[in-house]
Amino acid sequence: MRIYIKIGMIILALLLISGCSGSGEQTENRGGGVIPAVEAVQAQFGGLPLEERLNGIVRASNQVDIYPRIAAPIEEIFVQNGDQVREGEPLIRLRDLEYRERLRQAEASLRISIAQRRQAEAALGEIRSELRRARILAERELSSELEMEQLEARLESAEASLELAEAQVEQARSNVAEQNEALSQTVILSPVDGTIGQRAAEVGMQVNANTRLFTVGDLSQSRITINLTERMLGYVRTGHTARIFSENMPDTVLVSEISRISPFLGAGNFSTEAEIDIENAGGLLLPGMFVTVDVLYGESEQTTVVPLSALYRNPQTGATGVYRATGFGLEASLLTELDAGNEIRDLSNPTTVEFVPVDIVARGRDAAGVTGIRSGDWVVTVGQNLLVRDNSEVARVRPASWQNIMEMQRLRPQDLLREIMNDSNVANQLRNDTIVNVN
What we know:
The protein is an alpha+beta fold. It has 3 domains: about 1-50 and about 300-439, conserved putative lor/sdh protein from methanococcus maripaludis s2 fold; about 50-95 and about 185-300, Beta Barrel (Elongation Factor Tu (Ef-tu), domain 3); about 100-165, Helix Hairpins, CATH 1.10.287. Helices cover about 35% and strands about 30% of the residues. The strands form 4 sheets. Strands 3, 5, 8, 10, 11, 12, 13, 14 and 15 form a 9-stranded antiparallel beta sheet that branches. Strands 17-18-19-23-1-22 form a 6-stranded mixed beta sheet. Strand 17 and strand 18 (about 320-325) form a beta hairpin. Helix 1 crosses helix 8 and helix 2 runs antiparallel to helix 3 (about 145-185). The longest helix is centred in the N-terminal third of the chain and has 43 residues, at about 95-140. The protein is elongated, with a radius of gyration of 41 Å. The relative contact order is 0.21. Mean pLDDT is about 80; it is low at about 1-25, about 425 and about 435-439.
């Protein structure tokens, strides 16, 4: 932003010079040179919004990557990039011959295990009958104690065999369920409603659990992830306003709020993630896009506020301050015009200007709170370098509105140049004045 402001200042300063030299009202200063023409704005009194500027990454709502759970070649693909899908809709069919064969073998093993359990049940029943008859004979003293012990041992063995057979049946059934699940995975379904993107699947391709096939997400809703440092966690909260903009979205600022903040700091980097949920009805936010996010977390104390372009570091003294037009003022009607956003093109008569050091108590994206001047003072926003170069204590001032200064500060260099070059007369005058200044 600082380089953008500097470029804008240079361009507007050249325009002011050309306006002054071409108006027929050229005035010389005491040293015989042309009095510099500058642009100024009135300092205001108020608070500055406190904000943090962060970088964010856009994701679609419910954005997920689709991976197969099994290894197999692709036999059929049902969707393409950009297709809308519903949850549970088939995306891909894998070859299932091997999985059907495994299921048949598992079902056969289950039938064998069930038959073996029936045999174990029958054997157990037979031994129990023998034991009942032996006990009747023992009561009549027609059976020996040894025979009874042998039958009881056989009973315990038969019971163990039945338990083993039942466990084998359960194992076989579990294997059948597993093979059924593997067979169902040969048809890959969409886990969410959304739009297909980043297709990496082709018919005949061998895939496994590490092969990404698609990305699916709801493009009507976006989620922006930003990183917060340990220090920011002390004042950034969920619900704070977030302004989102990007070079890919010129003249567009989206507004939302912090939706959630992870309470865990990353090991080594001492930062955490915050998420911003935002409507994306216009489709401006694309998954994977980098955006700039201004998080507004409060307001500074009430003080005198000036545009950032008014702050100037004096190259002779190294002090930071502003150039104040001490003898400049406007009629109430002209102030009303400025407040309405109307532009005043006329330059003032020669006016005394002085450099005033200031202390910066708060700095925002477009303005700064300072001490050392009062609200209502006129401060130079364009042309400070001309005052220093000519060592001038007077200047001709063109008043500007806050709205115009804020818009100028937010313009990119190419936008400034485009607006200027669209007017051929201004472009020609600018070129001629530049040649004269160089010579």
